[in-house]
Design goal:
- By secondary structure, the protein is mainly β.
- The chain folds into three domains: 52 residues, no CATH class; 96 residues, Immunoglobulin-like; 100 residues, Immunoglobulin-like, CATH 2.60.40.10.
- Helices cover 0% and strands 57% of the residues.
- It contains no helices and 20 strands.
- Strand 19 and strand 20 form a beta hairpin.
- The model has no long low-confidence stretch (mean pLDDT 92).
């Protein structure tokens, strides 16, 4: 935001006041502004502003926590909070994801520095939400942590989205490949592949040890008018986890 004197008499002085919203910034910040005037010799002047932003409560490594991968392999993550101005205590934790995320607070330096440990509890599925840390700091009464999880069960499938078919500018027809794997190395069988047979052709190839399958996914372009795309899904069922429906979103393109 800028405030300035619009009219400056010959030989006089004017004032330009610039204010910068530094919410969400940390560390060194550089901003710029350009002043335009009717001075024929200096019609444009550039101004530079620089600052070092020290948050009242520093959150390291950041205020976003992401859990991703097989449930058995996801490790707890820690976030450290340190007050840069005055004493601070974490007085309460409000966990909006208490069914899938466990939290605990560890004191590293009383009134100064704390560690918040977050642990994934979900066995499978995706979630997102917030953990709110309430403090007694008079200028920073709360710190909000954004938490997301993308958790695979014992049998995982990747990728979870594919693009197959023919795209403009490329002569090749694009074929997709999907890996279905048991993270513990246990042998299993694919008992059902559910997909639109008018749009897709899917071939399952068991890998050595039968703890994984590769699915080759090809488009049947005769069912997709030129210049269009269609969205469909490939669903996989196994004998070890028949209740789970592993799913891949497939975009069939014909351009």
């Amino acid at each position: 935001m800028a405030r300035f004197d619009r009219l400056i008499p010959p030989g006089g002085e004017g004032k330009i006041t610039l204010s910068v919203n530094l919410a969400g910034y940390r560390g060194k910040v550089t901003k710029g502004a350009t002043v335009y005037c009717n001075d024929p010799q200096n019609p444009r002047v550039s101004l530079a502003l620089s600052a070092k932003v020290v948050p009242l409560i520093d959150v390291r490594p950041g205020d976003t926590v992401v859990f991703r991968g097989p449930a058995a392999q996801i490790k707890p993550q820690a976030v450290e909070l340190e007050s840069s101005k005055g004493p601070m205590h974490i007085v309460r934790v409000e966990n909006g994801l208490e069914k899938v995320v466990r939290t605990r607070v560890e004191t590293l330096a009383e009134g100064k520095r704390y560690r918040v440990v977050l642990e994934n509890l979900a066995e499978q599925g995706s979630y997102s939400g917030y953990v709110r840390l309430l403090t007694d700091h008079p200028q920073k009464p709360e710190v909000l942590l954004s938490v997301r999880g993308m958790v695979e069960g014992p049998i995982g499938i990747r990728p979870t989205s594919l693009l197959v078919g023919k795209t403009s500018g490329t002569p090749e027809i694009r074929v997709g490949r999907v890996l279905v794997v048991h993270h513990g190395g246990t042998a299993f069988r694919i008992t059902k592949l559910d997909y639109d047979a008018q749009l897709l052709e899917v071939t399952a190839k068991p890998q050595e040890g039968l703890s994984a399958y590769v699915l080759d996914v090809a488009a049947k372009l005769e069912a997709v008018p030129l210049g269009t795309r269609k969205l469909t899904a490939l669903k996989v069922q196994t004998d070890l986890r028949p209740e789970d429906r592993l799913e891949v979103q497939v975009v069939v393109v014909h351009q």
